[in-house]
Amino acid sequence: MNELMTSSRIKIEPVQNSKIHEIDFDNLVFGRKFSDHMVVMEYENGAWSTPVIKPYGPIEITPAMNSLHYGQAIFEGMKAFYVDEETIHLFRPEVHFERLNNTARRMCIPEMDYETFIVGLEELIKLDHQFVPKKEGTALYIRPFIFASDDLLAARSSNKFSYYIITSPVGAYYPEGFNPVSLTTTDNYVRAVVGGTGEAKTAGNYAASFLPAREAQEAGYTQVLWLDAKERKYIEEVGTMNIHFLIDDVVITPELTGSILPGITRRSVIQLAKDWGYKVEERKITIDEVFEASENGSLKEVFGSGTAAVISPVGRIHHQGKTINIGTGKIGDFAKRLFDEITGMQYGRVEDPYGWIHPVKVQ
Ligand SMILES: Cc1ncc(COP(=O)(O)O)c(C=O)c1O
Question: What's the predicted TM-score (pTM) here?
Fold first, then answer.
């Protein structure tokens, strides 16, 4: 195999034959196809190794591997956007990095430094830049993840860890326009408790939400709207999105209590809303307050925020036998403005006064 050494001393083992021809860029399905390469780094004897970029492919694991049994596994989700033949944009990678390290601390996984994270990612993007799709709304989804790799059945933190970054070209989230999602609360399950792992991006949080999500879908709703685990009345978040309410002209977002994932899109929404002159309240908000606002006509918009869809309008909420409808079946003006501004920066059409965009020169 041909080995290259980059200026940053990352070793690259390039593929012999690219799989780019296998990608149907007109019909991209989320997370099905992957780019040619991946970043790999191992932690052993108290230190991370130098990252290596290798061909994407199966990896060898042992049946006793810690993360398979005890779930010591964490991840991030971010995107790269095509701007032109020379430029790819990453959106707020340093905040994703911070969240990865915060998650790592909670899950007893060793942290890494920003240089290692960003250099590995940039080199991967440069090498696989042709996998970044070009059409409006498309992106290269980036999945950094770390799992415990001790070959030992012991319910305690592993001493060995593996870090990977894989990437996948993904299609436009809204090929036929914005379809508002419908949400339901659930009396049977909770997502996270304060003091638990809700604010960490760790595998088990998602596994535990699959059954409630399936039941919500069987009942005709897109996703579960999670309420707090203790009093079951304060709104927390949705499957893979944070949630925001426009009541009169105030933007209300559930405050980060420790059981909610601190979304990077959420943070961007709050910043933009403030800078546009909106009153923004990060506070506890009950499901009853939202239903009352709907009844008295002050609930203007409800939308979710997350890396996958950026902004998702919510059209219907069900709670304990009652349902409210929000808006007219289309995305609201405020949510649309946020969507246009954030995606505008991501694709390089709108100026970024915040330093959220991290350009990568690929040529
Ligand atoms: C549980 C959960 N909440 C919220 C979000 C939104 O976070 P972000 O805006 O950083 O993608 C995600 C997605 O990462 C998530 O998995």
Answer: 0.96
